[in-house]
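Q: I have 84 residues here and want to know how they pack in 3D. Can you give me a structure?
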Amino acid sequence: MMRWWLLLLLLFMLTPIFFFISVSLSMPADSPMRLLLWLYPAFCVADAVCAWICYPQRKEITWILIALMALGHVGIYVLHTECL
């Protein structure tokens, strides 16, 4: 059975990483938080892949990973607004 709804949900949750370049360019170059910003896309992609792999056997873990990705998006947003 294809999980099209899960794929669409994960792709929707990955859309904030497409704004990564504009966010990273607005971050001060000497900011120590810049490393976290550069690790953010890798975290999101790894989180989505793990959620996709976990779904057939552990649906609860998938939802926890999706919630973790949403919290990561909020954290990067707060980091971006506080460092400007």
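Q: Anything worth noting?
A: The helical segments are 4-14, 20-26, 34-54, 59-83. Residues 4-83 form one domain.
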